[in-house]
Amino acid sequence: MLVCPDKFAGTLSAPAAAAAIASGWRDAAPDDEVIVRPLADGGPGFLDVLESSLPRAVRHPVRTVGPLGDPVDATILLAGEPASAGAAHPDTAYVEAASACGLHLVEPGRRDPTVTSTYGVGLLVATAVELGVRSVVLGLGGSATNDGGAGLLAALGAAPIDEAGYVLPYGGAALLACAGLTGPPRLRGATLVGACDVDAPLLGPRGASAVFGPQKGATPDQVAILDAALARWATVLADLPSCPPGLAEHPGSGAAGGLGAAILACGGRLVGGFGVVARAVGLDAALDACDLVVTGEGSFDEQSLGGKVVG
Prior knowledge:
This protein is α/β, with parallel strands linked by helices. It is 30% helix and 17% strand. Strands 3-4-5-6-9-10 form a 6-stranded mixed beta sheet. A 3-stranded parallel beta sheet has the order 2-1-11. It is globular, with a radius of gyration of 19 Å.
């Protein structure tokens, strides 16, 4: 049998859940062969699963900031072959967005997606870019933010500004006054890849604000403000030469409070976070070799079939 759960959010990591399930099964059926492959979909636990599966993967510590600007210690995972002969680092960096903008980093009483920011995620990406990687893969999920990736772009030199040219405050609500950017994002030729756990668009009843805003502390009035702010933000991002048409409707553009939209606007692409992890852990081969699969997550609900591990 194959044991391949996601995390049980708030209680068990994916490796811990897998170990517990496997231990119980072995106790009851000691003659059965049990294969353990913990999984993730791009949210918290993304790096833990990849680190155990990717060859020569190493963590690089980074001092960054959380959703409200508090200091946070995070890491990026470097893996793959060097980008060129003599290069000091591998060519791919993996970033877990939740490590710098995760909901778990904000106490319940302070949760407010009108002011939380992805700036700390941008600092992680900037660090990876300065290390010379060719590709930065961002696991998107578990965020406390709804700023459309504005904080991330600010950390890369493309801060949102108002009509007078002043840099806007952090947070999604401030984007109502956005009129442009201070410049293009500085990526030094690196490509961004968003590993999504949802396929939500940026705007509307299925979008970032309406579906996920309340989970992050938004009131109904704030949801309306945030959706309007992201609509304004989408028109600004559309002026970037690398931004694809139809940004706001693109599946996954609403991931991580619209962080997916910022990745697309930078010329990046969005992929299923589950697929990234499945390839890394050799899931297909493990499925072919087993007769029974046991998976699970902390809560099976209407979001489970929209890109989550269990679905």
